[in-house]
């Protein structure tokens, strides 16, 4: 096509957007979605807060607790030394317990009947007897074996030592608690391994991975999602269970508190000191357990669990949005 000026004009491109015939129409505003009101939840929440306020008020205003005495003994050197020993004992027992429990779990899952039976027998014995009985047994082991030594099996001993000099109260507590925790750790690890689908192991073998490499690189990382929550409960239970070593005169947190109130006869405030420290440490461990679980949840869920700070921010945001919606609805009603 030639224009009057003699220049050729190109035809319009079929892909060029067509001009709107008129001004663009404004999109209609969608109605705001208001969540359904549930008065029953509000009433139940209000009653729960009322009961909580009554309990807290009765505790804080009860003079029998002697909160001034609690504050005075909360950070004394004797109590802090007992707290340090409790934390040390908990850490050592958990580490040694799982170091012994993991091989026991693998032995239990082994096709070797001797190893499987030995592992089952260990777990059966130490789960069947109370922890206090085990501690007292190990504390009096010298009555059965006055001397313990190393040497040739069914032959002469090369090195021997008196049991009384070898096992003191603290070492006895470590041995007794470790063997007890190892039995439970073996079952926790075994349950975590069994929670992994058999297809994962078959795929690893198809790729040529060995048994131990499959267990270490494929099975255990996936089993940790099942192991961590139970192991966290075991850790908290071990922290509180270390208080039982006070019967062996081990200077843990509870025994240190008992030494004080045996002199001052202020039983209730000193027990509150131990309670506050147990609650504080348990709270810290619970937070750590949450983040460990969140770490191992990667890949198993599309969205990771929200952190407590994020949940608090979201809750405050929803409360603010509901307040604004209530204000707007009341203004429109007028």
Summarize it.
This protein is mostly helical and 334 residues long. It contains twelve helices and two strands; from the N terminus they run αααααββααααααα.
Structure, explained:
The protein is mostly helical. It has twelve helices and two strands; from the N terminus they run αααααββααααααα. The chain is 67% helix and 3% strand. The chain has a two-stranded antiparallel sheet. A hairpin with a 5-residue loop joins strand 1 (147-151) and strand 2. The relative contact order is 0.10. Residues 1-9 have low confidence and may be disordered.
The N- to C-terminal Cα distance equals 67 Å
- The share of residues in helices is 55-70%
Major pleated sheet: 2 strands, antiparallel
* Unreliable parts: 1-9
Biggest sheet: strands side by side, in what order? 1-2
Average pLDDT metric: 81
| Quantity of strands, as a count | 2
What is the approximate shape?
flat
Rg (C-alpha, Å): 33 Å
* Pattern of helices and strands: HHHHHEEHHHHHHH
Which structural class fits the helix and strand makeup? mainly alpha
- Our count of helices gives 12
Task: Determine the strand fraction and express it as a percent band.
Answer: under 5%
Task: Looking at this protein, list some descriptive labels.
mainly alpha, 12 helices, 67% helix, 334 residues, two-stranded antiparallel sheet, 3% strand, disordered N terminus
Blueprint of the fold:
Elements lengths: L38 H22 L6 H7 L3 H32 L4 H16 L2 H9 L7 E5 L5 E6 H4 L2 H26 L3 H9 L4 H31 L11 H12 L2 H30 L11 H26 L1
Antiparallel strand pairs: 1-2
Helix pairs in contact: 2-11, 3-4, 3-7, 3-9, 3-10, 4-7, 5-7, 7-9, 8-9, 9-11, 10-11
């Amino acid at each position: 096509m030639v224009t009057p000026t003699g220049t050729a004009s190109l035809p319009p491109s079929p892909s060029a957007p067509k001009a709107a015939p008129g001004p663009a129409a404004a999109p209609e505003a969608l109605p705001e979605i208001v969540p359904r009101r549930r008065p029953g939840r509000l009433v139940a929440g209000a009653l729960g807060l009322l009961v909580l306020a009554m309990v807290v008020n009765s505790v804080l205003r009860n003079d029998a607790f002697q909160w001034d005495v609690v504050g005075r003994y909360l950070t004394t050197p004797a109590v802090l030394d007992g707290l340090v020993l409790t934390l040390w004992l908990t850490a050592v027992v958990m580490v040694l317990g799982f170091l012994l429990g993991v091989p026991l779990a693998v032995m239990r899952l082994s096709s070797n009947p001797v190893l499987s039976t030995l592992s089952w027998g260990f777990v059966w014995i130490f789960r069947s007897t109370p922890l206090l009985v085990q501690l007292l047994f190990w504390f009096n082991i010298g009555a059965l074996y006055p001397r313990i030594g190393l040497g040739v099996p069914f032959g002469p001993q090369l090195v021997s030592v008196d049991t009384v000099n070898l096992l003191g109260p603290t070492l006895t507590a470590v041995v007794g608690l470790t063997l007890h925790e190892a039995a439970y750790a073996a079952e926790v690890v075994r349950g975590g391994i069994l929670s992994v689908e058999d297809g994962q192991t078959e795929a690893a073998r198809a790729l040529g991975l060995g048994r131990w490499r499959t267990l270490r690189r494929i099975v255990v990382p996936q089993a940790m999602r099942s192991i961590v929550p139970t192991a966290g409960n075991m850790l908290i239970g071990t922290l509180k269970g270390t208080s039982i070593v006070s019967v062996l005169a081990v200077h843990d947190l509870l025994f240190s508190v008992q030494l004080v109130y045996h002199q001052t006869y202020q039983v209730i405030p000193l027990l509150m000191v131990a309670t506050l420290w147990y609650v504080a440490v348990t709270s810290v461990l619970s937070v750590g357990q949450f983040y460990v679980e969140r770490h191992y949840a990667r890949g198993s869920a599309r969205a990771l669990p929200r952190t407590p700070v994020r949940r608090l921010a979201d809750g405050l945001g929803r409360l603010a949005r509901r307040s604004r919606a209530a204000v707007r609805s009341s203004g429109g009603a007028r």
